[in-house]
Design brief:
By secondary structure, the protein is α+β, with helices and mostly antiparallel strands. The protein has nine helices and six strands. The protein is 55% helix and 14% strand. A two-stranded antiparallel sheet has the order 1-2. A two-stranded antiparallel ribbon has the order 3-4. A hairpin with a 7-residue loop joins strand 5 and strand 6. The longest helix is centred in the first third of the chain and has 13 residues.
């Protein structure tokens, strides 16, 4: 019986430059090599090489638009893996005021691929639970369901049709 070779992915993720590139892509947007180069301060050929490896491993995807190639996270498993590993990783010490300020902002509010995270995300979730708009699953899975009163709230207050979203989600699954 063949088992997956997890060492391939672990070797890819053991490089700080590749982790930095993945971290940039965690906001769910697609970027060109030049944009990623500007964020990372790495050389363009280095970023291209890392993106090639990440794309071959199916951690990132690339789409061509005209003469530009845009790189993004390939699927929801990549950020889930990244977040899972983050829970077991030591926090890097802050070495400058700029880093301190950036960490403070990220702690307050950020997007994480497909959801709002940070203190703001927790406050929104807590509010939605306290107002009986959503309820947590009983199995501690972190999955929430919209309540009947929540469907009314989303429809009337936010103009969001939950039934529409359910059918879109089913089509994507």
């Amino acid at each position: 019986m063949n088992s997956p070779d997890v060492t391939t992915i672990l070797r890819l993720l053991s490089d700080r430059s590749r982790i930095t590139i993945l971290d940039i892509l965690m906001d769910g947007r697609a970027y060109t090599v030049n944009e990623i180069t500007a964020f990372t301060k790495l050389k363009q050929h280095t970023v291209s090489y890392h993106l090639k490896l990440l794309t071959e491993a199916k951690l990132t995807a690339v789409k061509q638009y005209g003469k530009f190639r845009y790189y993004s996270i390939s699927n929801t498993m990549t950020p889930e893996l990244f977040e899972f590993l983050s829970n077991y990783s030591p926090v890097e010490p802050t070495k400058s005021y700029k880093q301190h300020f950036a960490k403070k902002e990220l702690k307050q509010a950020r997007t994480c691929y497909d959801h709002i995270a940070g203190e703001l995300g927790v406050k929104i979730k807590d509010f939605l639970i306290s107002e009986n708009i959503i309820i947590a699953a009983n199995d501690n899975s972190g999955i929430y369901s919209v309540t009947p009163s929540g469907e009314i709230f989303f429809a009337e207050e936010l103009k969001i049709n939950i039934e529409n979203l359910k059918t879109q989600f089913v089509k994507l699954s």
